Amino acid sequence: MSFGEFSRSMRAPAHFLLWCTACLDPENFRDFELVERKQLSHNVAKFRFALPIPTSSLGLPIGQHISCRGKDSVGEEVIKPYTPTTLDSDLGHFELVIKMYPQGRMSHHFRELKVGDYLSVKGPKGRFRYQPGQVRAFGMIAGGSGITPCSKSGPQLASVARAILENPKDATKVHLIYANVTYDDILLKEELEGLSEIYPDRFKVYYVLNQPPENWNGGVGFVSKEMIQAHCPPPAEDIKILRCGPPPMNKAMAAHLDELGYSKEMQFQF
Ligand SMILES: Cc1cc2nc3c(=O)[nH]c(=O)nc-3n(C[C@H](O)[C@H](O)[C@H](O)COP(=O)(O)OP(=O)(O)OC[C@H]3O[C@@H](n4cnc5c(N)ncnc54)[C@H](O)[C@@H]3O)c2cc1C
């Protein structure tokens, strides 16, 4: 195994990151080569892009995202935000999990992207700032509602959860409510299940589906006040509830949280 293969297959200890070079530029797009593409379902694929050297890290703070530039089906430029599912402790590469919509403009670009092609990326972007131990517990409410699935929510909150849980110096607990339309819409289910198996005392995920399959034991319908009460930490100065979904869902969740007594300081919306 070459050094490159070795370091790509390993996650690096924190001190090793000091040796690494961050690759993102907030002002200019940089091109990254697609080295692997894996279809996860009929319209979801995982894309792995190489960083310049095997010890490079992307340089993306927890909870922030990148801008990707591509061309739509008529050749016009399109720029959209995406959240890598990898962290800066994953060296030499970064990954995106992309849900591709038949009529989606950037979806077209990703559908056409082949191994060996390059993707233009700029960043970091985003308002979220996190210091380990900043709060005792996070509640996270993610997803879509009704007929509006939200592909950003899974990657966004899963990456925050993973960064918190995998940091040995961080004891913060994470309670995720993840709402989707159907079972197949749940992005990153395996990764989330993996985290709850490894960190059973620190990470809990509760799925809510609009159209559940038979014998479903999660929540059904829209995320309700009762679900928040049962699956998120109660209001306190040292907790925060993160919301990540389409605007109607965020609005409904903000109203629920206000009614349940969560102050503005206890809430954050991506
Ligand atoms: C911070 C942030 C991070 C994100 N991270 C990710 C990520 O990691 N992975 C990912 O897949 N996406 C992510 N998204 C969503 C992404 O930015 C695009 O919105 C998405 O890829 C669709 O873009 P598009 O140009 O293909 O579709 P558009 O051209 O904008 O939409 C055209 C048509 O596609 C369909 N469509 C588009 N979006 C949806 C939707 N959500 N639900 C149902 N139909 C839809 C509709 O028919 C719509 O009319 C993120 C968004 C944000 C804001």
UniProtKB/TrEMBL annotation:
Intracellular or extracellular location(s): Mitochondrion outer membrane
Q: Which domain of life is it from?
A: Eukaryota
What are the record keywords, sorted? FAD, Flavoprotein, Membrane, Mitochondrion, Mitochondrion outer membrane, NAD, Oxidoreductase, Transmembrane, Transmembrane helix
Supply one GO molecular-function term. Answer: cytochrome-b5 reductase activity, acting on NADH
EC nos: 1.6.2.2
What class does this enzyme belong to in the EC scheme?
Answer: oxidoreductase
According to its UniProt entry, the protein's GO biological process terms are: electron transport chain
Residues in FAD-binding FR-type domain copies: 27-131
The protein's matches in CDD domains, at most eight in alphabetical order, are given as:
cyt_b5_reduct_like
Q: Which residues bind FAD?
A: P81, Y82, V97, K99, M106, S107, T148
Task: Fetch the InterPro entries from UniProt.
Answer: CBR-like, Cbr1-like_FAD-bd_dom, FAD-bd_FR_type, FNR_nucleotide-bd, OxRdtase_FAD/NAD-bd, Riboflavin_synthase-like_b-brl
One Gene Ontology cellular component term attached to this UniProt record is: mitochondrial outer membrane
Listed Pfam families: FAD_binding_6 (PF00970), NAD_binding_1 (PF00175)
Essential cofactor(s): FAD
| Protein family (similarity comment) | Belongs to the flavoprotein pyridine nucleotide cytochrome reductase family.
Protein name as catalogued: cytochrome-b5 reductase
**What organism is this sequence from?**
Spirodela intermedia
